[in-house]
Design goal:
The chain has eight helices and 21 strands. It is α+β, with helices and mostly antiparallel strands. The chain has a six-stranded mixed beta sheet, with helices on both faces. Strands 13-12-11-14-20-21 form a six-stranded antiparallel beta sheet. Strand 1 (3-13) and strand 2 form a beta hairpin. The chain binds adenosine-5'-triphosphate. The site of adenosine-5'-triphosphate has 12 residues, from strand 2 and helix 1. Adenosine-5'-triphosphate is lined by residues 12, 23, 25, 43, 45-51, 203.
């Protein structure tokens, strides 16, 4: 089932009287979540991820705009009539009920022609439990389960009504690092097997990058970019997206386009016919975009090397750098021999790892270089 958001906006009254005005948690969202895909809503705290999910589930009503499931307008439908399965950060299982009863609970309340017999319910519970691989644990109470197992029960409970849409709000936050990794793979597997259109809220870019078919990057209630994870990384539309994705973070510099060259400070680091008009910009370079080169145009002060086996991190400095640390982090193959006692390190840049942004709007300025990629 595809989900269509049409000019969707949610405003909350601002409780801070001094600030006045409304909080715009979601601003004019106008995009489609394709059928059968796992889509991640990604962005910093307060960017509107949970609000978007709550609008889709029906827990919140939009201020403006519409939501469609397939061709059906569900904007005015109550949550229980939308056919969504919800999983939250806290598993919220009933402690006094067994796993089996917890999963069965949503089926007990079905009414009219949706009402199920005891046998049908037992069958559905078994199928859902099998899918999340807890069918051996049905007789236990939640307190007798690990965090990861509890979250699986919560997922089974969301799946038992065979929803058309599955909504997951930070479902891995309460798990330790190892369980997070394992459970996110599980979620991917379950989603692939069921092919349920799934929206997954996270502020963790690794989580979103590793399991989602598509990522929606959000900031201050505004959708910045929606694309495949690798495309968001390789082709960010603005400075925020470039800076938000990637560990180590992208390196950001004050730059200037002039006479067909891109300058960082005095160094003309790239050439392109499109760098003509005199213009101040931000230049952002991924850590893997630096090539150590004794004759390279980008002259940096070497601070230190961090050897990581296969790779080497070169920590250097340049007057144009805007990173919080004031340092540039580049990652190169360990085959590159850098003299750790040298005071200077010179680089040439891989053009497709360099992004240029307008200084005012922070939107991407695209360019071609003569030697291509
Ligand atoms: P987090 O990652 O911290 O959970 P989020 O991206 O999910 O954040 P939301 O919870 O959707 O963000 O909140 C978006 C904005 O709307 C925030 O500025 C928040 O303070 C505001 N907001 C959310 N719910 C309400 C509410 N009921 N009343 C007033 N403001 C609200």
């Amino acid at each position: 089932m595809k989900i269509v958001l049409q000019h969707l906006t949610k405003k909350f009254p601002n409780r801070n009287k001094k600030q006045g005005g409304d909080v715009i948690a979601v601003s004019d969202f106008d995009f489609e979540i394709p059928d059968g895909k796992l889509v991640g809503l990604l962005g910093p705290s307060g960017c509107g991820k949970s609000t978007t999910l709550n609008l889709i589930s029906g827990l919140e009503k939009p201020t403006e705009g519409k939501i469609f499931f397939g061709d059906e307008d569900v904007t005015d439908l109550q949550p229980q009539d939308r056919g969504v399965g919800l999983v939250f950060q806290s598993y919220a299982l009933y402690p006094h009920l067994t796993v089996e009863k917890n999963i069965r609970f949503p089926l007990e309340n079905l009414k009219g022609d949706k009402k199920l017999s005891k046998e049908e319910m037992a069958e559905r519970v078994k199928t859902a439990a099998k899918l999340v691989q807890i069918d051996e644990l049905l007789e236990r109470k939640p307190s007798e389960l690990s965090g990861g197992q509890q979250q699986r029960v919560a997922i089974a409970r969301a799946l038992v009504k065979t929803p058309g849409v599955l909504l997951l709000d930070e479902p891995l936050s309460n798990l330790d690092a190892r369980l997070r990794l394992k459970t996110r793979e599980e979620i991917r597997r379950i989603q692939r097997e069921t092919k349920i259109t799934t929206v997954f809220v996270t502020h963790d870019q690794d989580e979103a990058m590793s399991i989602c078919d598509l990522i929606v990057v959000m900031k201050d209630g505004i959708m910045m970019q929606m694309a495949k994870p690798q495309d968001v990384y390789d082709d960010p539309v603005n400075l925020f997206v470039a800076g938000f994705l990637g560990t180590p973070a992208i390196n950001i510099f004050e730059g200037k386009m002039k006479d067909g060259r891109l300058f960082i400070g005095e160094d003309a680091v790239l050439e392109s016919d499109e760098f003509q008009n005199d213009r101040d910009v931000y230049a952002a370079i991924r850590p893997e975009g630096f090539r150590p080169d004794d004759n390279g145009p980008f002259k940096c002060r070497l601070e230190r090397l961090e050897v990581m086996g296969r790779d080497v991190s070169i920590i250097s400095a340049h007057d144009g750098v805007l990173n919080d640390t004031g340092l540039i982090r580049s990652i190169v193959d360990a085959d590159n021999r850098i003299d750790p006692d040298s005071r200077e390190v010179r680089f040439s840049l891989k053009p497709h790892k360099v992004f240029v942004f307008d200084k005012e709007t922070e939107e991407r300025i695209r360019f071609e270089v003569a030697d291509g990629r």
